[in-house]
Specification:
The protein is α+β, with helices and mostly antiparallel strands. Helix content is 46%, strand content 19%. The protein is built from 20 helices and 19 strands. A hairpin with a 5-residue loop joins strand 1 and strand 2. Helix 4 packs across helix 11 and helix 12 crosses helix 13. The protein is flat, with a radius of gyration of 37 Å. The protein starts with a helix and ends with a helix. Belongs to the UvrC family. One of its GO terms (cellular component) is cytoplasm. This is UvrABC system protein C.
Length: 597
């Protein structure tokens, strides 16, 4: 059989770093990837079985492969990132490229203006940013305006026009916000010194400005110019206050990018902090929609490239939670303790809060998406063949062997369905036998569902270890449902999850949503079962105590319990108190029963 064009293309791929592109039968680009070894990576798609459905569909749709060889892995990352943003292939993670971030511009002109803008014009002007919010820009510009008097007019302040007296000072001059450069009241050297200081502040370096203000304040004080010294002192306090709020680490940590990632089954969130002179000058969280179960490593590498491009970062060192391959030009630091670890933890916390905010918004705007995400996560975590939309959890309750009962609670789409909760009084078991009780209730529950043709759950959770799980399995075997419903047991001590015919338990991350839902099911079953057990014990105590009194019927007992609440209070009640509730005749019978002596 002759080889297909695709097979020939794969065989002729080079063992070089670069980018590979998959095209479908209509010659549409459907996936872009990067690799250290293009041939090895592409071949892996066709040489093994893929468990994840979308990957199988991708491979099925590949009609041709193209590749681009590059010098380094870093070049491959940049090229992959640019191709994904440009073509938005169907099976690549979704990278949203927002072009409307605000910048702060220092205009290239004589007596430069400093202003916010969303348009970057290549005219030689300096642009600082982009910033992730206009609020940050306004805060910085407010700080600058409070420290330095800059012009806001758009006049051409050439030396000739100023000498010709073409302009007159405006209201800003009279308010003290401008020194009147338009009429020559301020020299270009003095103005340029302020711009140099502003440039350093925008870079996050406050040291030079603070030092300069202290020198000026001292000079004014020595010259007995106390009002001017006070004005400088106020500016110094403003700058120190701003620095105190923005500085969270050692000022020696300069020009560093920090990245962290939090992900679930469907989305990943990469947080970016940019540090300069000990200050966080930028923070941003990038949301990525997964398409092919990409690993955190793949997503973080792609995101670092994208974010550094987007924010024009030239930092030579980055802090990350695990090793990434970004070429030899960058210094990669994986902090383990100290201030660097605190900075990384802060980034992780920012990513977590961003994810929590997104999930809260989704719950309000699109509750189905939240449920779908949880179900997909549970399916993957618990190794199920289908999403557990309908889960039932069983728990036994007996105290000192009396009144054995069991509870079954039902969750639909990760939420309690209380109208479907069921209690069971154990009928066929004498004494405290949890294993036999579990076998009975599971049999009764699913025999009834089958007989009434009710929908069966996708997952059964047994509160207990291997013993209870084995007992429940016996009932499913008898009913012929063993392969119809997934079943697991959860042991209380270490939150171990047991599977049928598997001696090794599964341990979930203590913070995982899957474990939290299982714990919620278990706790709810326990609460519901205990509540029913207490009711039975109370009813039993009532029956054995009050119904033994000759001539006292059910209604009398109900009236007495409503008034006195407990049997003990009835026994200790005075005759006239009893008479006020149930009359003379029945009160005497109750009173005499407890006071025979």
């Amino acid at each position: 059989m002759p080889e297909s064009t695709l097979d020939i293309q794969i065989k002729t791929l080079p063992h070089q770093p670069g980018v590979y592109q998959y095209f479908d039968a209509d010659d549409r680009l459907i996936y872009v990837g990067k690799a250290k070894d293009i041939k090895k990576r592409v071949s892996s798609y066709f040489n093994k079985h893929h468990d994840y459905g979308k990957t199988r569909v991708l491979v099925k749709n590949i009609a041709s492969v193209k590749h681009i060889v590059v010098e380094t892995e870093n070049d491959a990352l940049l090229l992959e990132n640019n191709l994904i943003k440009k073509y938005k292939p169907k099976y690549n993670v979704l990278l949203k490229d927002d072009k409307s971030y605000p910048w702060i511009c220092i205009k290239k002109e004589r007596f430069p203006r400093v202003f916010p803008t969303r348009r970057v014009i290549k005219d030689g002007s300096e642009y600082f940013g982009p910033y992730t919010s206009m609020k940050t820009v306004k805060t910085l510009l407010g700080l600058i305006k409070g420290l330095y008097q800059l012009r806001t007019c758009n006049y051409d302040l050439s030396e000739a026009k100023i000498e010709a007296g073409k302009y007159k000072v405006c209201l800003e001059y009279h308010l003290g916000n401008c020194k009147g450069a338009c009429e020559g009241y301020e020299s270009e050297e003095e103005y340029s010194a302020n711009i140099t200081a502003i440039r350093e502040i925008l870079k996050g370096n406050f040291k030079d400005s603070l030092q300069q203000f202290r020198i000026q304040m001292r000079q004014h004080a020595e010259a007995m110019q106390f009002e001017d010294a006070q004005k400088i002192k106020e500016k110094l306090e403003v700058l120190e206050n701003y620095q105190a709020k923005s500085t969270i680490v050692n000022p020696k940590i300069n020009n560093v990018d920090v990245f962290s990632i939090i992900s679930d089954e469907t989305y990943a969130y990469v947080n970016f902090l940019q540090l300069s002179h000990g200050s966080i000058i930028r923070s941003h969280t990038l949301e990525l929609k997964k398409k092919l179960q990409e690993t955190d490593l793949q997503l973080l590498e792609l995101s670092i490239t994208e974010i550094r491009q987007r924010f024009n970062s030239n930092s030579k060192e980055i802090y990350v939670p695990f090793k990434v391959n970004l070429g030899d030009e960058l210094k990669i630091t994986i902090p383990k303790l100290g201030e660097k670890k605190s900075i990384l933890d802060l980034s992780i916390r920012n990513a977590k809060y961003y994810r929590m905010d997104k999930l809260k918004q989704v719950k309000i705007v699109d509750p189905d998406r939240h449920a779908n995400r949880i179900m997909a996560q549970m399916k993957a975590d618990l190794r199920l063949s289908e999403e557990p939309r309908h889960i039932e959890c069983f728990d036994n309750s007996n105290i000192q062997g009396t009144n054995p009962v069991a509870a079954c609670v039902v969750f639909k789409n990760g939420k309690p369905s209380k109208k479907e909760y069921r209690n069971f009084n154990i009928k066929t078991v004498d004494g405290p036998d949890d294993f036999a009780s579990m076998e009975e209730v599971v049999y009764r529950r699913y025999k009834r569902l089958v007989e009434e043709e009710q929908p069966l759950p996708q997952l059964i959770i047994i509160d207990g270890g291997k013993g209870q799980l084995s007992s429940a399995l016996k009932s499913l075997d008898v009913l012929g449902l063993r392969n119809e419903i997934a079943i697991i047991g959860i042991a209380k001590r270490l939150e171990e999850l047991f599977y049928p015919d598997d001696p090794i338990p599964l341990y979930l991350d203590k913070k995982s949503e899957t474990l939290k839902i299982i714990q919620q099911l278990r706790n709810e079953a326990h609460r519901f079962g205990i509540e029913h057990h207490r009711n039975r014990r109370s009813k039993g105590a009532l029956t054995t105590e009050l119904e033994n009194i000759p001539g006292v019927g059910e209604q009398t007992i109900v009236d007495l319990m409503k008034q006195f609440k407990t049997v003990k209070r009835i026994a200790n009640a005075k005759l006239d108190e009893l008479e006020a509730v149930v009359g003379v005749s029945r009160a005497n019978k109750v009173y005499n029963y407890y006071h025979k002596e």
